[in-house]
Write a structure and sequence with these properties.
71% of the residues lie in helices and 0% in strands. With 190 residues, the protein is mainly α.
Length: 190
């Protein structure tokens, strides 16, 4: 059964369809949130999303894509901090529904998405970066941060130019606008 699920998440046609439908799905979520979100859930959900966004911004400010092995910033603690940050960013939005079944479904869906996406990405990075990347994989956990490395000086790395080059500022602005418009709607129009 798990092989069927993994095959689905790795199927090129299914991935292309999902990629094309992501904006439609986002609009559907917005419409559902307009109907089911409650003001009382807004602040806790925002804080969870903000935590995820902070991880993503830190990742954006550390990562030089496809040019060099990034082993600084959050990449000292975990190999895939951007996916971890995205998990919490979206989890905040999911929490707005106030439904534990939707939350559980999201967690399961995201798990399969992340495991399969990271698997494909690690194969690509191994062929692109070679032995140094393989050595990095041997030292750093894939998904769970190694908090024992928290005091490594490389963890404190944050470069604003890299953040802007990776468009992290737009990601942050989009999150703020999303929550701002939703708060406006929930407080004044519903």
């Amino acid at each position: 059964m798990l092989d069927v699920i993994h095959d689905f998440f790795n199927h090129p046609v299914a991935r292309k369809i999902f990629l094309k439908l992501r904006y439609v799905l986002f609009l559907a979520v917005l419409l559902l949130l307009a109907r089911y979100a409650e003001v009382s859930r807004l602040v806790p959900a925002f804080l969870v999303s903000l935590f995820g966004e902070a991880i993503q911004l830190w990742s954006f400010a550390s990562l030089v894509k496809n040019e060099q092995l990034t082993a600084r910033g959050p990449y000292v603690l975990v190999r895939n901090p951007m996916y971890l940050g995205r998990f919490f960013l979206i989890l905040g939005v999911v929490l707005l529904f106030g439904n534990e079944y939707i939350t559980a479904a999201y967690v399961v869906f995201y798990y399969f998405y992340m495991v399969n996406r990271v698997g494909r990405e690690e194969k690509r990075l191994t062929s692109l970066l070679g032995q140094p990347y393989q050595h990095y994989c041997d030292r750093v956990n894939r998904f769970l941060p190694s908090l024992g490395k928290l005091f490594d000086p490389a963890v404190r790395y944050f470069n604003w130019r890299v953040l802007y080059r990776n468009n992290g500022h737009w990601n942050f602005l989009a999150m703020l606008l999303f929550y701002g418009f939703l708060a406006e709607y929930l407080l004044y129009f519903r």
